[in-house]
Amino acid sequence: MADADKEAIQRRERLKALRNKRSRHQEGKGSGENEQENVKPQLKFRSYNPQSEDFKEKKLPKAKPEDIEAQVSEQLETGKDMDLGDVNLTNLAPRKVDWDLKRELTNKMEKLERRTQRAIVELIRERLKGDQLSEEVADAITSLPEEQYDSD
Fold it and tell me: Which of 12, 32, 42, 74 has the fewest beta carbons under 10 Å from its own?
C-alpha cells in the first residue's frame, strides 16, 4: 500500500501543477487578447509578384542558394577515411517488391500446411476404415451359401 500511496501523492502534485499552469496560461491569455486584436497579420510575398505599388515593398528579396561546396568537400574528406571493405554488398541490394507480403504470409502458410496435413491423414484413415468395411462385407458375402444371395 505504501507504493500506491506514494503514487497517489505524486499524481495529486502533478495535477496541481497542471491546474496552476493552466490558470496562469488563461490569465496571460486574457490580457493579451486586446493586443492581438489590434495587430494585423503582415503580408510577405515570396513567390508572388504584386501588381500594386503598395504591395511591392512587401515583397521579400529572392533567396540565394547557399554555398555547399565546403560541406561537400568536408564530407568527402571524412569519407576517404572509411574502410569500404567491411561493407556487405548483400545488405545493400534492394529487396524484392513483395518481401513484406512473404514475411507476413509465412506464419499463415505454416498454419495452413499443418491443417492440410491433418486433413490428409483423416481422409486416409477414413478410406482405410471404408476398405476394411468393404472387405468385411465381401468376406460375409463369400461366407454365405450360394442359395441365400443368388436370387436368379
Answer: 42
